[in-house]
User: Which sequence fits this backbone?
């Protein structure tokens, strides 16, 4: 299959992570005002965050002008091993000179509905007077079932048309908070980071030119006034 132009295939996950870190730096440097980033959770982006914390990358980023947000979070405390914040804190946030006030953690502890509303309030205040958040960059992962953030196949929140943050559950019943498609689709740049054979089938379906479908929520990410790119490794691209 001809690979669509917005897809970059990398031989290895390490090469993919290096390219993603480079892209982060490039955009951070080119933005005079603040650089707003929605971080993905899961395992794939961890290496990108670790690279950004290395001397080669961190010294090239104006961290005082970087603002970090989260695409989703599990309903667990910030130090819990399942916490996306814990992963990003350990790999990146604790290792760079980013002001604590520039990091907007999704609270996983406590009442998820209250936490979803509170995060939305924070986002609305930060991005006021916009009708949607405007992330300069949104890093996204994709599960083997085509989910992204905590937007799972056939979930009712895929229809959400006004809320920016919602509580939801994974198919396994794990409580989650997630940015909605509306919030993600107003990013200036969305970059999916996808590695592994187990994602090849969903990726092939999504990039095959089929209409976007709630069967594969990642296919519904189409920035209305921004760019969409896929950084994939050879294994994930094996079905393309
Ligand atoms: C999460 C993520 C989720 C993740 C995918 C891929 O909280 O788990 O937001 O959407 O990006 O499940 O996860 P891996 O990178 O671990 O394969």
Assistant:
């Amino acid at each position: 299959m001809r690979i669509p132009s917005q897809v970059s295939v990398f031989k290895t996950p390490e090469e993919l992570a290096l390219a993603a870190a480079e892209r982060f730096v490039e955009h951070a440097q080119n933005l005079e005002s603040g650089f707003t980033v929605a971080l993905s959770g899961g395992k794939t982006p961890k290496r990108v965050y670790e690279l950004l914390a290395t001397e080669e990358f961190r010294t090239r980023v104006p961290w005082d002008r970087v603002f970090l947000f989260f695409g989703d979070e599990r309903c667990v405390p910030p130090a819990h091993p399942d916490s996306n914040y814990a992963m990003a804190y350990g790999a990146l946030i604790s290792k760079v000179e980013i002001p604590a006030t520039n990091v907007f953690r999704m609270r996983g502890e406590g009442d998820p509905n209250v936490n979803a509303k509170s995060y939305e309030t924070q986002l609305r205040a930060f991005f006021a007077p916009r009708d949607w958040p405007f992330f300069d960059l949104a890093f996204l992962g994709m599960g083997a079932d085509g989910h992204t953030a905590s937007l799972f196949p056939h979930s009712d929140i895929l229809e959400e048309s006004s809320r920016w943050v919602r509580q939801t559950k994974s198919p396994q019943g794990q409580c989650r908070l997630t940015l909605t498609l509306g919030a993600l689709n107003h990013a200036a740049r969305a970059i999916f980071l996808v590695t592994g054979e187990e994602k090849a089938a969903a990726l092939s379906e999504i990039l095959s030119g089929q209409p976007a479908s709630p069967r594969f929520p990642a296919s519904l990410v189409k920035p209305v006034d921004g760019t969409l790119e896929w950084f994939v490794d050879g294994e994930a691209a094996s079905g393309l």
Summary: Residues 13-30 form the longest helix (18 residues).
